[in-house]
Fold this sequence. Notes:
The chain is mostly beta strands. It has one helix spanning 6-27, and strands at residues 32-40, 48-57, 63-70, 73-84, 87-93, 96-98, 102-106, 112-118, 127-134, 139-147. It folds into two domains: 1-30; 32-149, PCu(A)C copper chaperone (Immunoglobulin-like, Sandwich), CATH 2.60.40. The termini are far apart. The mean pLDDT is 87.
Amino acid sequence: xxxxxxxxxxxxxxxxxxxxxxxxxxxxxxxxxxxxxxxxxxxxxxxxxxxxxxxxxxxxxxxxxxxxxxxxxxxxxxxxxxxxxxxxxxxxxxxxxxxxxxxxxxxxxxxxxxxxxxxxxxxxxxxxxxxxxxxxxxxxxxxxxxxxxxxxxxxxxxxx
Length: 160
Ligand SMILES: [Cu+2]
């Protein structure tokens, strides 16, 4: 027990905290799979944009995501679209719920993530991370790919 000096115990504590955090960030998200996150290129003057992503909850419990953030923007919010006087408008949601053993698709014209106060121009092939946190205090991280803006207007064409 000669090694158990205070310094040694502090180091042990630090290593424990480090591994605990590492575990939390990497393995706590087994139940939640974030897939195929994307957004489009922005114009130099553009200060906001939206992100689309598929979220799969493989756990047997509902997961409530109550915040989203990104280093490339001042603020990120969950949004949906509702009809107001026959016009489609965006509405902020405080949280989104991914029900147990089900999936949620954030896509154009529906649920999406909105970034406000972009601090850089997003270019084709760029990537950046976004972070989510859930109501049970888990953190999730995923990479968003920036797509060419021409794809935004890529509509289905009838071949024959
Ligand atoms: Cu929006």
